[in-house]
Design brief:
Helices cover 33% and strands 27% of the residues. It is an alpha/beta fold. It binds adenosine-5'-triphosphate.
């Protein structure tokens, strides 16, 4: 049983098809990144998972259960910024939530500790930085000791140090057995924190894979003069389709171990070779190809 399974999940808002036939699977113990540009349908999908809105069609199971009584008992969520009382302390806010949820108050100090907020827990919420507010939000999602955590853009608006803190905390939670599904429009973030990625574009899941597999193949960058002669040698050797011309350089779609042979062919033809360099696959390029050049990706 996978902690999250959706089948052909769809949501229309009037004429807008916000989510189209999304079937995704989050496996136990992993950090799964739900990645897509702004407006791709991430929040709408997460809201359907949490029963905040009803799907137009398709199904959802969390921890093996279809929506219904007790569906979210072992699920923690941070979506659309939780509401806290500004004049109460962080701790007191959590006590209110714990009482409301029927959770033992002893959990409050435990979760404050987990998110690194214990030292400032007595301060009023209104005095918290954005990073501290996010951490308190995460603490509230942890009160029920969830097996599954669903986080919508958990690092949104945080400075680099706050983002790094949040990443560490999320990885620690996963290391302790919690499955995490988080959405993000930040490729670099997903690359750093996630085990697997689902890429959503214009409402459709266009890839579900590991970060490593998401990368396109690398290329061999070659610079040689005279340019036209170099192009003739390379296309004769490899065929037109494997020789891409970029700014008077060549990007060759070959395996890295062909570098020596290609260099010797060029030198043997009397050409001056000034660069032969393996370029690691570019994750951002792969992502842009998948999402059709979605514009809001950072
Ligand atoms: N309640 C609603 N009524 C009408 N349209 C909506 C509603 N909620 C979302 N949409 C539309 O559905 C599409 C997907 O929005 P959604 O918020 O799920 O995207 P997202 O990937 O989470 O983007 P963001 O990162 O900007 O939140 C957008 O075109 C949005 O305008």
């Amino acid at each position: 049983m996978n902690p999250v399974e959706t089948t052909e999940l769809s949501k229309n808002f009037g004429d807008i098809a916000a989510v189209k036939g999304v079937s995704l699977t989050v496996r136990r113990g992993e950090v799964y990144g739900f990645l897509g540009p702004n407006g791709a349908g991430k929040t709408t999908t997460l809201r359907m998972l949490l029963g905040l809105i009803r799907p137009s069609s398709g199904g959802v199971r969390l921890l093996g259960n279809p929506p219904g009584h007790g569906y979210l008992d072992k699920v923690g969520a941070l979506i659309e910024g939780p509401a806290f009382y500004p004049y109460l302390s962080g701790r007191k806010n959590l006590v209110v939530l714990a009482d409301h949820a029927g959770v033992a108050r002893t959990r409050v100090d435990a979760v404050l500790d987990t998110v690194g907020l214990a030292g400032r827990a007595g301060d009023r919420y209104a005095t918290y930085s954005l990073g501290m507010k996010q951490r308190l939000g995460l603490a509230s999602a942890l009160l029920k000791e969830p097996e599954l955590l669903i986080l919508d853009e958990p690092t949104n608006g945080l400075d680099p140090a706050g983002m790094a803190d949040m990443r560490v905390t999320i990885r620690e939670l996963a290391a302790n057995g919690c499955t995490v599904l988080l959405s993000s429009h930040l490729l670099a973030e997903v690359e750093q924190i996630c085990d697997r990625v689902g890429v959503i574009s214009r409402g459709e899941l266009v890839a579900e894979t590991t970060v490593a597999e998401l990368r396109a193949g690398g290329t061999l960058r070659v610079v040689a003069q005279p340019f036209d002669q170099a192009r003739t040698v390379l296309t004769t050797l490899l065929g037109d389709e494997r020789v891409l011309v970029r700014d008077r350089a060549f990007d060759l779609e070959v395996e890295p171990d062909q570098a020596a042979k290609i260099t010797s062919e060029l030198v043997g033809a009397g050409l001056a070779v000034s660069e032969v360099r393996w370029r690691e696959p570019d994750l951002e390029e792969a992502f842009l190809v998948l999402t059709g050049g979605g514009n809001d990706v950072a």
